[in-house]
Design brief:
- The structure is a homodimer of 298-residue chains.
- The two termini of chain A are 31 Å apart.
- Chain A contains ten helices and 13 strands.
- In chain A, a hairpin with a 6-residue loop joins β6 and β7.
- A nine-stranded mixed β-sheet of chain A has the order 5-4-1-8-9-10-11-12-13, sandwiched between helices.
- Chain A has 298 residues and is α/β, with parallel strands linked by helices.
- At the A-B interface, α7, β13 and α10 of A face α7, β13 and α10 of B.
Chain lengths: 298, 298
C-alpha cells in the first residue's frame, strides 16, 4: 500500500521562545511524510526551486520518501517565515515567498495515478482539484487548506469538499469556512457540504472528529515540551491518514486509533524545530507514547 | 455525608448571542450547589442583601440547599453583569457591584464546622482562609479563585494553596498565577506550591488534572447547544467535588469518574441561562449523558 501527498516542500525560518532557525526543511508535504512514512510508502508531489539544498533531498530519500514527482523548477523554493509567542498556539506569519509554488502544476507518473490513498495538503484548491482529477480510483481522500484559500478561493474549496472523504482543518479554519463559532456546528456545516468525515485540529486542545455515525473528541498528549509547533497539523494528518491507509474498514475503532496515532505523531513534532524530532521517529516510539497517552486519557 | 461551599450568591445580568437576562439567580456557590446537590447535602455559606428576592430563597430551599449560613445583610446583593460574544469562551465583565460582599464575614454553625468536605469558591482569599481556619477537620478542600485576587492578593492566595487538597483554576488563571504559558508547566508550578492536586478547566476544551501520581486530560462533552456558559466552572467543580465527597479513596479511578461528572454537569449548565437547566437536573440525566460521553471520548 502507498499514499500520495500533494503539498509544499518549503524552507522555513522560525522564531520561538526557544530559539531561531533559518531555512529549515519544512512544508506541509514534508511534515505529513515524516509521520505517514511510518505506516506506508509516501509519494510526495511538490515543487522546489534550484536553490533547494541537495542535503534536504538526500535526507528525504534516506527517509524512503518517494520523490518521483518532486519537481525542481527554475526559481526559488517556497519560503515561510514565522514566529510563535506566548503559549505557542498561534503562528504569526512574518513573510511568505511563493517562488516556484506560484506556477506549480503537479505531474505524476502513470503508476502513481493508481494510488488509492490521497492527501491534498495545503496548496491552492485549484491545484488540489487538478491532481485529484488525475487519480484513477481514489478510495480515501484527505483535504487540508488554510485561511488564505478560504478567503480567496472559497467557492473552489467548497466544491472540492464534495469530492473528498475527509476534510481536515484547524479550529480557526473550520470557523472561518463555516461561519460558525461553535466547533460542533462548524463540523456539521462542513459535513453537510460533502466530506464523509470532518477532522478539526485544535492544537494543544486536541482534535474533534465528526461523521454521520459518531462524534469523537480526543485531547492532545499532555506535554510541557513545546519547542516549535510548525508542521504539527500536517504531522497529525500524516499519522492519521497513514494508519487509515493500512486498515480495511473506516469504522469507529480504526478511526479512533488513527486519531491517536495522529495525536502522538504531532506530540513528537512539537518537541523540536522543524523535522528534527520526527526525522528519527520509529513505530516503536509511537507505540510507547501511545501506551502512556492511553493512561492519560482513558 | 455533606459538603460546605463558601462563595457568592449573586444577581447576574447576562447577554449572549441567544438572549439577554437580568438579575438572574447566580453566583459561584449557587452554581456549585446545583450540581453538588445531586451527590450530597450542600451547606451554602454566603451573603445576600435585603434586595434579594424571596423566590430565589424559596428555590434554593426547594433544591434542598442548606441555607443555615446564608446571611442576609443590610445593603445590596452582589451583582455581576457580563456579555459573551463569538465562541462564548470568554466573558466580558461589564459591571460588578460588590454590595454586601465587600464586608462579608462567614459565620457557620458548630455542626457545620465538623464537615470534612469543603469548597472555597471564588471570593477574597482572606475570607476563604477565615472559613477554612474555622473548620475542625478538613479532609478534602477545594479552592477556586479568579484573576482579580491573583493580581491583587497573590501572596494571600499562594499561602492558601498550601492548605488545600485541590486547586481549581481555569486556564487563564493558571497561567496568570504560575507565569507559565504551557498548562502542564503551570500545573506543575501550582502543584509545587502546595495542593496535592491541580485541576485546570479549559471551557470548551475540557479539563486537565495534575497530581504526583498521574496527569489526566479530559475533553468537554461535544455540544452545539451553548446558550450561556456563566457558572459552568462552578457547576463542574460541584459535580467533581460532589462525587469525591462520596468516595472512600482519592485514587485514579475515582478522580477520573469525578472529572467525568464535573464535565457532564457543566455541559448541562451551558445549555440554558443561569441555573435554568441545572435546576431540574437529576442523577439520571447525568448518568444518561455520561453514557453518551463515554462513547465520544473512549
Amino acid at each position: 500500500m502507498s499514499i500520495i501527498v500533494l503539498g509544499t516542500v518549503a524552507l522555513d525560518s522560525v522564531k520561538t521562545p526557544f530559539g531561531i532557525r533559518k531555512d529549515m526543511l519544512g512544508g506541509s508535504a514534508v511534515h505529513f511524510g515524516m509521520s505517514a512514512r511510518l505506516f506506508t510508502d509516501v509519494n510526495l508531489v511538490a515543487v522546489i526551486g534550484k536553490d533547494f539544498p541537495q542535503r534536504h533531498i538526500d535526507f528525504l530519500k534516506e527517509k524512503k520518501i518517494i520523490l518521483t514527482s518532486l519537481i525542481m523548477k527554475e526559481g526559488k523554493t517556497f519560503r515561510w517565515k514565522g514566529e510563535y509567542r506566548g503559549d505557542l498556539n498561534t503562528a504569526v506569519t512574518l513573510n511568505t515567498q511563493l517562488g516556484v509554488l506560484s506556477t506549480f502544476r503537479p505531474a505524476i507518473s502513470e503508476s502513481q495515478r493508481k494510488i488509492k490513498h490521497i492527501f491534498l495538503a495545503n496548496v491552492d484548491p485549484d491545484i488540489q482539484r487538478y491532481l485529484l482529477q488525475r487519480m484513477h480510483s481514489p478510495a480515501l481522500v484527505g483535504l487540508d487548506s488554510m485561511n488564505y484559500w478560504i478567503n480567496n478561493k472559497r467557492s473552489s474549496l467548497m466544491s472540492l469538499l464534495k469530492q473528498v472523504t475527509i476534510y481536515v482543518a484547524n479550529d480557526q479554519e473550520a470557523r472561518l469556512l463555516s461561519c460558525e463559532n461553535n466547533l460542533i456546528k462548524a463540523a456539521k456545516f462542513l459535513y453537510r457540504h460533502g466530506p464523509k468525515m470532518v477532522l478539526i485540529k485544535k492544537g494543544e486542545h486536541g482534535a474533534l472528529f465528526f461523521s454521520k455515525e459518531f462524534i469523537f473528541s480526543m485531547p492532545a498528549f499532555p506535554t510541557d515540551k513545546v519547542t516549535d509547533p510548525t508542521g504539527a497539523g500536517d504531522t497529525f494528518a500524516g499519522g492519521f491518514m497513514g494508519y487509515l491507509s493500512k486498515v480495511k474498514k473506516l469504522n469507529e475503532e480504526n478511526i479512533k486509533r488513527a486519531l491517536a496515532y495522529g495525536t502522538i505523531a504531532a506530540s513528537f513534532n512539537i518537541e523540536d524545530f522543524g523535522v528534527d524530532k520526527t526525522a528519527n521517529l520509529t513505530m516503536r516510539d509511537l507505540e510507547n507514547r501511545l501506551y502512556k497517552f492511553r493512561k492519560c486519557v482513558l
